[in-house]
Amino acid sequence: MNGTNYELKRATALTRERAWEFLTRYNSDDFHLRHAETVEKTMRYFARELGFGCEEDYWGIVGLLHDIDFEKWPSEHCVRSQALLKELGVDDSINRAVASHGYAICTDIKPEHLMEKILYATDELTGLLGAVVLMYPSKSAQDLNLKSVKKKFKDKKFAAGCSREVIERGAEMLGWTLDELMERTIAAYQSFEK
């Protein structure tokens, strides 16, 4: 077995159920738990769409755990998570990926792998999409469209906690236009309701 497969097999030994147990050990707020599940589903979607279906569980677990430290230690975000995940025995590759989504914000761990770049690019964007959905009378992601998302993206007061700079930097890391990132993430978001 080559090293890559061994590392992947070791990293995915953490089940979704166990990852949820870890997450809820440090998080109880419904908003944070819903966000974790949204990012998990987004990561799973992109794993399938980008040809990494065999790694879907791994990508999903990284998405689920990405904010494990945020609720209790927001000022130590992506720093405290490294110690927590290590203490919990979580594989180093998951730990690194989780920490990398705080690049140039609260860590210097740069996203290198495609999965890490997707997490970095979509974390803030899923928050923006969720806020846009709440504005629709239907409250349905099926009503999301690029034009309305771009309009809200330009309005810095709307969902002000969602960093436009991080979203733009994420698109650049992926080599995608901002429109492409938005369109693909909208498709991911809409897939949750199907």
Lay out the secondary structure.
Elements: H1 3-11, H2 16-26, H3 30-49, H4 56-65, H5 80-87, H6 92-100, H7 114-135, H8 146-154, H9 164-174, H10 178-191
Tags for this entry?
10 helices; disordered N terminus; single chain; mainly alpha; 194 residues
What report would you give on this structure?
By secondary structure, the protein is mainly alpha-helical. The chain has one domain (3-191). It contains 10 helices and no strands. Helix 4 packs across helix 6 and helix 7 packs across helix 9 (164-174). The radius of gyration is 16 Å and the shape is globular. The termini are far apart.
In short:
It is built from 10 helices and no strands. It is mainly α and 194 residues long.
Could you tell me the number of beta strands? 0
Classify the secondary structure makeup into a structural class: mainly alpha
Q: What percent of the residues sit in helical stretches (DSSP H or I)?
A: 55-70%
Measured between the Cα atoms of the first and last residue, the distance is 37 Å
For the biggest sheet, the summary is: none
Estimate what percentage of residues fall within beta strands. Answer: under 5%
Shape: globular
Low-confidence stretches: 1-7
User: Can you count the helices?
Assistant: 10
Return the domain count.
1
What is the mean predicted local confidence, pLDDT? 93
Q: What is the rounded Rg?
A: 16 Å
H-E string: HHHHHHHHHH
